[in-house]
Amino acid sequence: MQILDCTFRDGGYYTDWNFSNEVLNKYLNAVSKLPISIVELGYISNKRDQNGPFFHLDKTLLSKTKSKLRNNQKVFAMINFKEISNSNDLYKLLANKQKYLDGVRFAINPKDVVKFLKIILPVKKKIKGLSFNVNLMYASKWYNKKNFIVNILSKLKNKVDTIAFVDSYGALTPKETYELFEEVYKHKNSQFKIGCHFHNNCGLALANSIIAKNYNCDVIDTTFRGMGRGAGNAETELLLAIDNLTRKKIDGFELTDLLDDLEEMKNNLKWGSSFPYAFAARNGFSQSLIMDLIQKRRLDPGTAVNVIAKSSQVKKVKFENLKTFSRFKKSKSTPILIGGGPSFKNYGEYFFDKIDKNIFIILSGSRALFNLISLNKKVKNPIILIASGSEFKKINLKLLRKLKLYGIIAEKEFIPGNIKLNFRMLKSNSVAINPVLLTGLAVLSNGLKKLDFAFFDGSPQSKKDKIVMEETNNAINFLNKKGLNMRSLTKNYLNIQNQNLWI
Predict the structure, then answer these.
(1) Which residues form the domain of 102?
(2) Are residues 278 and 359 in the same domain?
């Protein structure tokens, strides 16, 4: 059995592939003294994004890692197969890094095997001495399909060095894992190694890894503290402790030092198995979906369970009670959407003195609402509140009744059943979508073509804020394609034109 530790590669989903030099040194010092055979350090990518150095591995980082590890330890990287169009792209990506790498891995949908082989085989011939490996995704969908497994193995043998089976949804039970490897090992031969990568949605990643080990699985993927996308993975340190051979080779304080740092990260970033992750896994929903819903915090975990079951049913966003918003629809002024930025508390009074009293003000959620209340100013503008996801749970309904709201735009799924409010309610069939997206679609549904923005500060205080900011700009791009003309009246982070309100 070989252990492939992919802490930085898989854990990067929580840090945007940014890890400090201090953490890297602690990691390499610990791993170099442990019976770990392969380190998958991160991704190799030319994609233009905001991800950190462990998504864009370069010669410097790879060389440093090589120099710190033992001679018999290998360094791997993963390549996102979706980013590769042809063999030339792949060769250019690897050409100047091959001397620092021992192997690369590609996570692919089994239906793409033929396309995958067509791209990698010419490169494999050119780059000698580099191990090419494949991770077959979505094992929980086909673990018991014998003909499917035989067909996949026959296509890949002699073409790649390791075929790893990935429980992408973290849904496999030990019994199902047993069935998978029972079938796989009927057809295993010396022409390729077998690997496994289990996600921990149901808290079973380690148990499933041990079953794979008992079937003499050649390479087992793990991460320290189970750090990884969504619920994470099987824990490296626990597999080392359980295995009779590896636990005898654990020595030194370096491991404890590393685990202490990662435990602190885990407390802050909150990965690990949970009811929503387990529910998502066993009902065939990806962990990336539930990870997004929980991290963005428009939904509490309990509500997220309902969302993942219903979100796929919404094909097109539609609104009920459009007629009740007749004044909004006939408005000749461009409505202004207020973000949750703290600058609203500082400059909101000047803002209302500057704008026409007939302009509709749309509050993007509870943050904007509370910032408005903190102004302690009588506002004459008609006000609309956006309530996407679980926003109603954050707002005292008695407070809403005291405000002279024109109306609320809310998602039907999350409107409290006992709510009794005396103003208009525009109901959407959407499920926990971004509040800017919900606003823009409501504006377009009312026949309006323009929307102004204010107080979208762009000063993230947490990982959650960064995720929501990125999602908001995606919403902006979508609405722009739908024909909505947008501009911002204050300093902002949005991908739209800025028109300085104060000039």
Answers:
(1) 2-273
(2) no
Residue 216 and residue 205: Cα distance in Å, rounded?
A: 17
**Cα separation, 481 vs 302, whole angstroms:** 34
Q: What percent of the chain has pLDDT over 90?
A: 68
The answer on 185 and 113 residing in a single domain is: yes
Cα Dmax for the chain: 78
| 340 and 482 both lie in a single domain | yes
Nearest by Cα to 381 from 331, 429, 418:
331
Task: Record the tokens describing residue 286, joined without a space.
Answer: 């990806």
284 with 266, same domain? no
Residue 478 belongs to domain with CATH number: 3.40.50
Phi-psi region of 406 (alpha: psi -120 to 50; beta: other; left: phi over 0): alpha
Q: What is the pLDDT of residue 303?
A: 64
Residue 282: inside a domain: yes
Residue 126 within a domain: yes
Q: Lowest mean pLDDT: which of 174-178, 291-295, 318-322, 421-425? A: 291-295
Q: What does the alpha-carbon distance between residue 289 and residue 312 come to, in Å, rounded to a whole number?
A: 11
Q: How many domains does the chain have?
A: 3
Res. 294: pLDDT tops 70: no
What residues contact residue 418 under an 8 Å CB cut-off, 6+ apart? Answer: none
CA distance linking residue 409 with residue 425, whole number of Å: 6
pTM for the model: 0.72
Rounded-to-integer distance, Cα 413 and Cα 427, Å:
9
Residue 445 has pLDDT above 90, yes or no: yes
Domain match, 288 and 410 both = no
* 223 closest CA partner among 205, 208, 210: 205
Q: Sheet of 485-488: strands edge to edge?
A: 319-320, 424-428, 405-411, 383-387, 361-363, 336-338, 450-454, 485-488, 497-498
**What is the total residue count of the chain?**
503
Residues in CB range of 371: below 8 A, 6 or more apart: 338, 340, 342, 344, 345, 348, 455
pLDDT of residue 412: 87
Assigned domain for 218 exists: yes
| pLDDT score of 288 more than 80 | no
Q: Is residue 503 part of a domain?
A: no
The predicted pLDDT at position 268 comes to 87
CATH number for the domain spanning 23: value is 3.20.20.70
Q: How far is CA 4 from CA 35, 239, 260, 380, in A?
A: 10, 11, 21, 63
User: How would residue 293 be classed by pLDDT, with cut points 50, 70 and 90?
Assistant: low
